[in-house]
Every structure is written in structure tokens, then in C-alpha cells.
Design goal:
Helix content is 54%, strand content 9%. By secondary structure, the chain is of the alpha/beta class. A five-stranded parallel sheet has the order 10-11-12-8-13, sandwiched between helices. It has a four-stranded parallel sheet with strand order 2-1-3-4, with helices on both faces. Strands 5-9-6-7 form a four-stranded mixed sheet, with helices on one face. The structure holds adenosine-5'-triphosphate. Residues 470-496 are annotated as: Disordered.
């Protein structure tokens, strides 16, 4: 936490928002923590906060911390959308919403902040190494565990239903009610009977003073309740945190077990695998209500099973019992002796005689059934005893279950469960006391490691490598500029111009769309003002995009999607995408204004120093894709030629222009311009263009429309073929 930072120091936070943030997050420190961690989702929960507003706040926080924002490097809308496109792919590798939000905090850093890039690179590298040290199965397990983790929450303590506070004077009642009334029932007890009733109604009773009368045992007594906290009188409340965050805690403890021997350091290394395992076993014992989770306490499992199954088992037994009695009766005959006949004659009910006759048999059946029930439910003696009259004390057929016996039995079992859970909660909360902070920091550490783990996974999935930086000698460069342009100095090796060199790069967007193995690797290098010419669909735009991706990622401190990549460190990146057709006068004017902005950097310092080019001049890369579409071809070539001359004169710009107008541009240019080309080699057996995606140096590649005409000619017949043949002859 940056202690000197306050909410009101952040652009965009006025007194109203400051109050809202503090109210929502309960403290300024927590609000700042969320802002600094870039937790957009958390911020969006603040009253009146939209996603856009949250994003802009976070970007202001980054700016206040680092002095820069993404826009300082990404100078055009298209440069920004390249960056956003990269983030979109990157976020697919995140396991947690936390990491996904955090990705927005990775921004390209200009040259003067290169130390920040180094920190980022070091973290990514260590996580790439870490991933390498695990097997595929382990990586899958780690990914799975990370996806189960969400930031730790501590909701306000809920109302506790199984405890009551008894007070015996008005004064104590009023202060206890004020202090604990929100969470516990508080009673002012006046007589022994009321106290006895409450003791039997609640599994747990707390006394805040001794009554003047005797009360039965089974309570807790606190003398100095004025200084008590809720946690002291209801220790099981401490379980709330573990219940609310159980999934995240269990997953992070499992991760700690896996990582304990690893290289992550921090909170992981503070915990041994054994400690993580034993804490995990403790936390696993709780269910969503804080009771014993199934499988952890055989006695609780037995009692819960009784409660769940008893009704069904009793009903089945009653049915079997009825059949047995019926069967026994149907095979019996009743013979009355003289005395019995006399009884009937004197008015005694025949039923009594029948009962007398069959009762011996039936009692045997009843006993058998009760024994069976007891065995099936694994009942204990005290539970057994409650059931002796569950089928009634008189024999009837069909046999009926006595509802009051059944409910007495169930109540007995339920109170045993409650009692057991109560003592479980108490002992568990004692065992877990003091572990809350450890769990909180473990969860945070896991979320943070997901940030780096995800970036590393993204880098490995795209076979990315860290770039090498080519730092040019400022003095030499300046000397060259004030005299001749970089090209005039002589391009190629030894040239001190800004430059890049890429070996086997693969455009991330194409890899994402078609799969890494379907993208043809491209190698390219240049160190001057360059035009990239080439065949239609040859991959010029894709290459420009790929280089843009590499420039942005490299300045973020990330590896780039190439086998090897080196470049000069830059301050600004301008990317002008392909326009969708001839622009109207207004749009044309805006485009030219955008280009003019490229040259405006640090003009005041330049003028003040009386220098044409000073060392504070920003280093920039300027990419433009088929700028010719901005106006008619003749004028476009002149404008592009003018721009290239200006870039060449600037000396601090690495510019690459994709264009089909290489020849007319060269004609209009007063300086020699480097032209490279992506060439089509011909048509394959399926009449598809065969293209070498690697630009050929110093080569004007044709757009090769003749190959398209040839393709049409070869695939047509009759009149159509004759028509295409005539067109073909024009080339
Ligand atoms: N390196 C590559 N590997 C595989 N496919 C590629 C590669 N580069 C380009 N392509 C494929 O070729 C298509 C056309 O590429 P792109 O738009 O970059 O060509 P272009 O030279 O800019 O074309 P145009 O001059 O017509 O604008 C892409 O959509 C992609 O499907």
C-alpha cells in the first residue's frame, strides 16, 4: 500500500466519489487497494460506477503511480486497438476475474521507464520457468485450482439463531441489547421458570450476570461483558470467514501444498506442505452452515442418516409387519372353549379373546421389526428405547405408525445433531483462530500468481521469446542527423538508425484465428524509412500488425511472438490502419493533422536549445497501411513521399509504410527510400497464389494482378476463357 497516496490525489475522484468509495469499501485504505490492484469488477459495485468510469479511474491511478498511461506510448486509435486486441487474447489465459482485470494494468512503457519493463519481464520469466518445472497434469491441476479462487470476502456477521443472552437487570439488558442485539437475541429474565424455558429452547445460553435464583446448568457466564467483543462470546462466528471463502481457501491451500517446494517465495514459502494440508483438512470439515461436512465425523453422519431415512424405514416395517400379521391370521382358526363361550354370552367382546389369542405371535413380530429397524439405522440404546411403542401399544392391522412417537424420536436425534455441531463449531473455531489472516494473504498471493501464471501461459502458448534491445549511440545518431540522414550515412550493419529485426514471427491475431501451426512464420528487419510493397493478400497488413504487436509487447516487458526479436527502445508508437476508401475532404484533413502531430514532440525544448534535433527528442515508430486510399493515387504518392522525407529528416522515427505505390512514391521522393517486397511466386495446382510471406529486401514486389487474371483464365472455359486470355495478353 502506498501510504502517501490518498483517494483525492487521484484525477477523477472528487469529494462525492471519495465518500462513496470509502462508504462502499469501509475504509480509504481498502478503496485504494482495490484501485491499485485494478479490480474493475469490485469498483463497478460502487454506487453509480460504470465500467468505463472504473476503467478510467484505474488508468488515472496507474498514471499517478508511474507518471505514465498507455496513451503516452500508443499514439493513435489503431495503435490502441492493437494493444486492446492483445489484451483480449491475453485475458483468455486468465483463470480468475482478478487476473483478467489486472491485465489492463500492463501498459507499454516508453524508453525512460525501461526499468519497469525489466521488473515485468523478470516476473514473467520466473513464471515461465515455473510452468516448465511442472508436468502437464500438474499444470492442469494448478489451472483448475486457480479458477476456483475469488478475492476473500468478510460479510457482516449474521444473526445467530442458536444462542441467547440472558440478563437479569434492566441496565444490563439495555446495554447488552445495544451492543449485541443485532446478532443475538437478548432477554431480560425475571423468574426461574422463564430462565428454565429459555435454557431448554436454545442449545446455548449466555449469562451476563448471576441471577438471584437458581437456574439449571448448561450456560456460559461472562462477568465483565462491557468490554466483550462478539467474537469472544460467540467464537464460532470466526467460522463465518472460512464458510464464506471455503472454496477459495481450499483451492489456495492445495496450491500452497503444490508450490511449497517451488520458487514462488512470499506467502507460499512461509507455509510447509504439511501445514497447508492440515489447515485444508480442518477447513474441509465445515459445511455451508458451519456444521460437520459429510464424511468427517462418523457420529454426525450416523445421526443425519437416521433423520433422513427413519420415516421411510418405519413405513416399510409397518407394511411388512401388517403382511406378517395378516398371513398369521389367515392360517389360524379360533376355537372357543366353554369358558370363553360363557364370556362372549355374558357380553365380553370377542375382539379381546381374539387379541389374547394372537397377541403372543404378534408381539414376536413387533419385536423382530424393531430389532430390524434398530440394526438398519444403527441405533444406540437411548434411541432404541424411544421406539418401543412406535407401532402403538395395541395390536392393529394394518399396523399404524404413532406420529407422536416418531416426532419425539426425530426431535431427540435432531437435538443430538445440534449439540454435536455446536461443540464442533466451538472446537473448530478455536483451532482456526489466528488462521484468518494467513488464509487472506494466501488467497491474495494465489490471485497475484494467477496474473503472472496467465501471462506466462499466454507466452508459452504462442512460443514467445523476450526481445533484445538495440540501444543506439545518441551522439553518433545526432551527428549523423545534423549532417546527413541515416540512410545517407549508409544503411545496413553499423547504421545507428532506429531499427528492428524479427526472426520467425507469428501474428497473434492469425494464430488465435487459425491456430499457431497454420500461421507461416515471417522474418523481417529494417532500420530506416521503408516502403513495404507486395502482392494482394500477400500478408503485408498481417506483417505490419505482427510488428506492431511485437513493439507493444516488448515495451510492456512481455516476450514477443517470434523466435527472436531485437529492436530499439521507443517512446511513442503511431499506427495508421488501412482506410476503407477515398476519404472526404474533412477526413483527409484530419489524417494529415494526425501525421503533423508525429513531428510536434518536444518542439519547445528543441527551440529553446537552439537545436534542430536534440537528445530529448522522442523516439518513435510510425506504421501506415496503404495510406494511398486517403485521396486519389497521384496525390497520395506525393503526400506519402513528403511524409517519408519528413520522417527521414526527423531521424528519430522508424517508419514502415505498406503501399502499392512504391514506384510513384520513389519518383516523388527527394531522398532514397528503402523498398522491400512480398512476392507471389506463381499459382499452385489448385490455382491458389503461392506467396513467400517473407519480404525480399530492396525489391519492388508487384501486386501481381496478372496472376489473378491467369488464375481466372485457367479456371474458365469457352467465351470466358477467351475474354481472360485477351486481358492476360495486356501484361
Ligand atoms: N503469415 C501468414 N500465415 C498464414 N496466413 C497468412 C499470413 N499472412 C497473411 N495470411 C493470410 O492472408 C490473408 C491476407 O493477408 P493480409 O491482409 O495481411 O494481406 P495484404 O498483403 O495486406 O493484402 P492486400 O494488399 O490485399 O491488402 C490473411 O487474412 C491471412 O488469412
Amino acid at each position: 500500500m502506498v501510504s502517501s497516496l490518498h483517494l483525492r490525489d487521484i484525477a477523477g475522484i472528487g469529494p462525492i466519489l471519495e465518500k462513496r468509495l470509502i462508504t462502499h469499501f469501509k475504509s480509504e485504505e481498502k478503496a485504494l487497494f482495490v484501485l491499485l490492484k485494478g479490480e474493475i469488477r469490485e469498483l463497478c459495485l460502487v454506487e453509480g460506477m460504470t465500467k468505463k468510469a472504473a476503467q478510467s479511474l484505474i488508468s488515472n491511478v496507474v498514471k499517478s503511480q508511474t507518471g505514465i498511461c498507455a496513451g503516452d506510448f500508443l499514439k493513435t486509435k489503431e495503435a490502441e486497438s492493437l494493444y486492446l486486441g492483445i489484451l483480449k487474447i491475453l485475458k483468455k489465459y486468465c483463470h480468475t476475474a482478478y487476473a483478467s482485470d489486472y491485465m489492463d494494468l500492463f501498459i507499454p512503457y516508453p524508453k525512460q521507464k525501461s526499468n519497469r519493463r525489466e521488473e515485468v519481464s523478470a516476473n514473467i520469466q520466473s513464471h515461465m520457468d515455473l510452468i516448465h518445472s511442472f508436468s502437464e497434469d500438474e499444470i492442469e491441476l494448478i489451472s483448475n485450482l486457480l479458477s476456483q479462487i475469488t478475492p476473500a470476502r468478510t460479510a457482516a456477521a449474521a444473526k445467530i439463531k442458536d444462542k441467547v443472552i440472558l440478563t437479569f437487570t434492566e441496565k444490563t439488558y439495555l446495554s447488552a441489547k445495544e451492543k449485541f442485539g443485532k446478532n443475538l437475541a437478548v432477554h431480560w429474565v425475571l423468574d426461574p421458570q422463564e430462565a428454565a424455558d429459555l435454557l431448554s429452547a436454545y442449545p446455548s445460553v449466555i449469562l451476563f450476570e448471576f441471577p438471584e435464583f437458581d437456574i439449571p446448568d448448561g450456560y456460559e457466564y461472562f462477568r465483565n461483558f462491557e468490554n466483550l467483543t462478539l467474537e469472544q462470546i460467540v467464537p464460532e462466528i470466526a467460522l463465518d470467514f472460512f464458510i464464506q471463502n471455503q472454496k477459495s481457501i481450499l483451492a489456495s491451500l492445495k496450491l500452497a501444498e503444490i508450490m511449497a517446494a517451488g520458487t514462488l517465495g512470499g506467502v507460499y514459502s512461509k507455509m510447509t506442505a504439511e501445514a497447508a494440508l492440515s489447515l485444508r483438512t480442518l477447513v474441509s470439515k465445515i459445511d455451508a452452515s458451519g456444521n460437520f461436512a459429510a464424511g468427517f465425523d462418523p457420529e454426525s453422519d450416523r445421526l443425519n442418516l437416521i433423520l433422513k431415512n427413519c420415516e421411510e424405514i418405519f413405513l416399510k416395517s409397518a407394511g411388512t409387519l401388517s403382511s406378517k400379521i395378516e398371513q398369521s391370521l389367515s392360517s389360524s382358526t379360533l376355537t372357543l372353549d366353554g369358558a370363553q363361550m360363557m364370556k362372549v354370552m355374558s357380553g365380553i367382546d370377542l375382539k379381546e379373546i381374539v387379541f389374547e389369542k394372537v397377541s403372543k405371535n404378534c408381539r414376536g413380530f413387533f419385536a423382530e421389526s424393531l430389532a430390524e429397524i434398530s440394526e438398519k439405522l444403527a441405533l444406540k440404546k437411548d434411541e432404541d428405547m424411544l421406539l418401543w411403542d412406535v407401532f402403538g401399544d395395541e395390536i392393529s392391522c394394518p399396523v399404524q405408525i404413532q406420529p407422536d412417537v416418531l416426532s419425539r424420536f426425530k426431535k431427540h436425534i435432531s437435538s443430538k445433531i445440534t449439540e454435536r455441531n455446536h461443540s464442533h463449531k466451538k472446537s473448530l473455531s478455536k483451532e482456526l483462530a489466528g488462521q484468518k489472516e494467513m488464509c487472506e494473504s494466501l488467497i491474495t498471493a494465489c490471485l497475484e500468481s494467477d496474473v503472472w501464471f496467465s501471462v506466462a501461459a499466454f507466452a508459452l502458448a504462442h512460443e514467445m521469446t523476450f526481445p533484445k534491445w538495440e540501444e543506439r549511440d545518441e551522439k553518433e545518431s545526432r551527428g549523423g542527423k545534423e549532417g546527413k540522414s541515416g540512410r545517407e550515412n549508409g544503411s545496413g550493419k553499423g547504421d545507428k538508425n532506429l531499427s528492428f529485426s524479427m526472426d520467425a514471427g507469428k501474428n497473434l491475431f492469425l494464430s488465435q484465428k487459425y491456430g499457431l501451426s497454420h500461421v507461416v512464420p515471417v522474418s523481417y528487419a529494417t532500420n530506416s524509412v521503408t516502403i513495404l510493397s507486395g502482392v494482394n493478400s500477400g500478408g503485408k497488413t498481417s506483417l505490419l500488425e505482427l510488428l506492431g504487436q511485437c513493439f507493444i509487447l516488448a515495451h510492456m516487458g512481455f516476450p514477443v511472438p517470434a523466435q527472436s526479436f531485437s529492436m530499439s527502445s521507443l517512446d511513442e508508437f503511431y499506427y495508421f490502419g488501412k482506410s476503407k476508401g477515398t476519404l472526404d475532404a474533412g477526413a483527409f484533413e484530419t489524417t494529415l493533422r494526425n501525421f503533423a502531430a508525429v513531428f510536434k514532440t518536444k518542439k519547445p525544448e528543441r527551440e529553446k536549445a537552439g537545436l534542430t534535433f536534440d537528445k530529448y527528442e522522442k523516439k518513435k515508430a510510425v506504421f501506415a497501411d496503404e495510406l494511398e486510399a486517403i485521396t486519389e493515387p497521384g496525390a497520395s504518392a506525393k503526400i506519402i513521399a513528403g511524409l517519408l522525407e519528413a520522417f527521414c529528416a526527423d531521424g528519430n522515427a522508424l517508419s514502415l509504410f505498406v503501399s502499392h505505390l512504391a514506384e510513384p512514391i520513389m519518383k516523388n521522393c527527394s531522398i532514397p527510400v528503402q523498398v522491400d517486397g512480398i512476392e507471389a511466386k506463381g499459382l499452385d495446382e489448385n490455382l491458389n497464389l503461392v506467396v513467400d510471406r517473407n519480404p525480399v529486401k530492396n525489391h519492388i514486389a508487384k501486386s501481381t494482378p496478372e496472376l489473378i487474371v491467369e488464375k481466372l483464365f485457367l479456371s474458365a472455359s469457352g467465351e470466358d476463357a477467351a475474354f481472360y486470355e485477351k486481358l492476360k495478353a495486356k501484361f
